Predict the 3D structure of the following.
Amino acid sequence: MTVLHLRRIILFFLVVCVSFPAATFASYKDEYKMSVVVGAKLPWGQGAQRFADLVREGTDGRINIKIYPSSSLMAGKQTNEFLIHRQGVADFCFASTINWSTSIKELNLFNLPFFFPDYKALDSVTQGAVGADIGAILNEKGVTLLAWGENGFREMSNSKRPVANPEDLKGLKIRVVGTPIFIETMKALGANPVNMNWGDAQVAFQQGVVDGQENPVVAIQIPVKIWQFHNHLTVWRYVVDPLMLTVNNKVFATFTEQDQEVIRNAAKQAASEQLQVVRKGLVAPDLSAYDVMKEQGMKITFISDQSRMAFIEKTKSVTAKWTNKIGRDLVEKAREAVNSSGN
Ligand code: X2X
């Protein structure tokens, strides 16, 4: 190689570096903000902290993520989370599909009443082609999906009576998140839905402002000791609530490739650990989560297959309307995945 060649090569690299400055540590912020809707003591909040710890370790402290729990980055209004994430107020999120479904219509797939019968069905969707489609939709909107965690199947608790059939729900005041499909589903079932942020909900339970609520058992109901307020639980798996661990695209692009890899791996590990925690004790033969509730005096109703059919029948119009809004193709693709998952 001649000196001239060498000069040219050096010049070429100089030009490339100046025109396309690679991410360098120097541009890193001192702190990255991560939004979580619930408190730090719940498995969801702990999963976010685990992710932050793994990233800090894996990057030798170069990337320092601070958790902002209890919807604190959006002043309590949990359905605004996607908007503040896209704007870059939150660099990272560990977020429920429910809270983002007002901004991203496709995420209502997980809110379709009685669509997912079990974990196999859910996994076939999140881990398969539909999960990848959702990743692409988020990416177009400015956010990278790093991993799926879980809040869980949402079961209903109330202070009035056992609910085994749609008729039993009649007139019960049920707190739901402020997303239209939840209000419509509860109305279709004859209940009286009240929308409320999670931050206000627990006081409302305590004061008896509402008769009931719906949330996952291990992820939410046991940690908040729901039996203090409600003595009836209905296990009906009416909707599921996956969690998405995400990063704002513009922020992600500022990290070196090596650090991006650390972040991806940390997300997968933290989300998968969190998912395993919240699934424990909910499926026979291990029903220990329900035993915890029974020991606290709760009466548990597992709905029968026949009753599930009755609930599906009652919510048919909601499913039809929202299938159109979500997009028929995506819903059909998900239904195929559910059907071929062994159900
Ligand atoms: O508000 C709820 O019910 C919660 C905590 O489960 C969600 O953020 C969806």
